[in-house]
Amino acid sequence: MKKKNGQLLQGNEAVVEGALYAGCSFYAGYPITPSTEIAEVLSIKLPERGGTFIQMEDEIASIGACLGASLAGAKSMTATSGPGFSLMQELIGYGVISEIPMVLVNVMRFGPSTGLPTSPSQGDVMQARWGTHGDHPIIVLTADSVPETFEMTVKAFNFSEKYRIPVILLLDEVVGHMREKIVLPAEGEVKVVDRLKPEMPPEWYAPYADTNTGVPPMAAFGDGYRHHVTGLVHDAQGFPTAKPEEVISGMDRLFSKISRGFSEVCLTEELYCEDAKTIILSYGSAARSARDAVETLRADGEKVGLLKLKTLWPFPKAALEKYANSVETIIVAEMNRGQIYREVWRVARGRWQVGKALAPYGNMLTPEMILDVARKVTK
Amino acid sequence: MSVMSECPTRQILNPGNSNCGGCGATSGLSLLSRAVGERNIQIVIPACCSAVAAGLFPNSVYGVPALMTTFAATASGATGLSVVAKLNGEDTRVVCWAGDGGTYDIGMATLSAAAERNEDILYICYDNEIYGNTGGQRSSATPHGATTTNTPPGGKVEVKKDIMEIMAAHRVPYAATVSIAHQEDAIRKMRYALDARGFRFLHLLSPCPTGWKSEPSLGLELVRLAVRSGLFPLMEIFEGKRRVVNVEPDFSQEALARYLNLQRRFKKSGIEPETLASEIEEHWSALRAKIRCFK
């Protein structure tokens, strides 16, 4: 049992604590700043608990091992940053179509390529959504503090297990390397979800059959059920198919199993939004500056609110729609050239103005930079 | 006149670089500068300490055209450079300079493929037995018994990958190990490798005081002990067949114990010199068998 009085942890260490809390017993990864601490701490803590830590030969192998471990029944995780995230893209799509739960942490650094090692950035937001080829659903979570990193790591495992999908935890360098006080919850205090296992006899089991949630139960490779796991589009049994009706139902289920869970998956946090004429929308470390800017503007008597995204994808559209009739401007504050800005602009459909406060040069977004933009709007 | 008293006409690694004191890569590149002399070379470096060490212009950029590529693309990037240089009739040599992480692990696929195609490349692996650039994690070149920032408590249990036999299995025209403590031998091999054609491979043991937890001034001594004890055989392999041992070790137990004692990375595991000695013996009896086989 952890003591209740809290401890000082780094964001990356909070990922480790969250993963262990959620029941992660397998980690395969490849060192890359600014995510390396996750591997280093797990290399000590996993073996202590009977889990497995492997340093792989590269990032393709890392995600491959995690998918294999998950198929064998373990909760698995890997962590990386920009260049490694690029290498993992093909297997992310493989995990999505073959419905293998796992957690992939990307502690973002400035890119493209080696970029500015390792200045902060939120430049991988669209890559997390569309990096692997083909239409596909994905769940991408983020966090702005050390305690929230713990919370979202547990959620990432929960969503991946519940929806049978790889979940990406997209942190930025500032959150990964920041140290903050955190009180770790006791066992049982936070909900931990495990994948649904089949209860039918092996001969009745169809690993990709539709269910009332859209998520089929998942047997482990060693459970005695038949497995045929493939990146080809497959039928309910898992065997390759090109029959139009099977392609349609299989692919539609892939998307609908997630869209049915939108209300649970799309997480946001709101501050003073009810009467706000201007809302600052932000996420990750930029949201900390946004909160500071909002408090300053409120103290000046401006009707400004904060909408913080904890889920980036699926985009929490409903949280914005709620204020469609009251808000005049939404300012997107992020550390890239406007990746979520475009998404907000798409959702707005002219109903509100969309502004941006951006930090696209490997620098942090400061409250002053956001205030400069917001004051022009509220003037 | 000794090759070591010749002043290199051109430094590959300029002064003012950000390498740690006592870095074996600094010594290796300085030897390479002497070996290269008037020859034209181009250098390909993946993500590794040497990519960082180049620092910012004008302090310490490389003195030759340099392609700093991604971690896994050293041998493939060099393939492109070398093939087109030949098409253009340029008299140049494409030299890869990659760490053990980029060679033994993530770069293995492109390295193996380029070797199999017998591309006209000189590939030099400076092996510090660790991921130095990211702060000292294990690689598959990390020796048995060494502790890194992410080996399980008790140090690495696996034996170091035998890169020379992997390259020999590709039947590349020339592969050799290079010691920064045996400089005449090193320069001779570098010059041979620079002037040979086809795929050439050099393996250079590169002390890393930061990762090995050793005194920066003891780098040469450590390599000398590694050679003496048989831990790092100084050898050449021609066409993947004929093997020549350049410096016969005396397999001194004292040298091996001293090698381990001078580095704190071996302290935690408490690995006994005897354990490593039996691995060394096994390695050499296999090597001698191959030497006899391909006489």
What does this 3D model show about the protein?
The complex is a heterodimer of chains A (379) and B (295). Chain A has 379 residues and is α/β, with parallel strands linked by helices. Chain A has two domains: 7-182, Rossmann fold, CATH 3.40.50.970; 270-378, Rossmann fold (3-Layer(aba) Sandwich), CATH 3.40.50.920. Helix content of chain A is 39%, strand content 19%. Chain A is built from 13 helices and 14 strands. Chain A has helices at residues 11-22, 36-48, 59-71, 82-97, 125-130, 146-163, 173-177, 244-259, 262-265, 284-299, 317-321, 339-348, 367-378; strands at residues 7-10, 24-29, 52-55, 75-80, 102-108, 139-141, 166-172, 179-182, 268-271, 278-283, 304-309, 311-313, 329-334, 353-358. In chain A, the strands form three sheets. Chain A has a seven-stranded mixed β-sheet with strand order 3-2-4-5-7-6-12, sandwiched between helices. In chain A, α3 (59-71) runs parallel beside α4 (82-97). The longest helix of chain A is centred in the middle third of the chain and has 18 residues, at 146-163. The radius of gyration of chain A is 21 Å and the shape is globular. The model of chain A has no long low-confidence stretch (mean pLDDT 96). Chain B has 295 residues and is an alpha/beta fold. Chain B is 38% helix and 15% strand. In chain B, β1, α2 and β2 (66-68) form a beta-alpha-beta unit. In chain B, α1 crosses α7. The two termini of chain B are 33 Å apart. The model of chain B has no long low-confidence stretch (mean pLDDT 93).
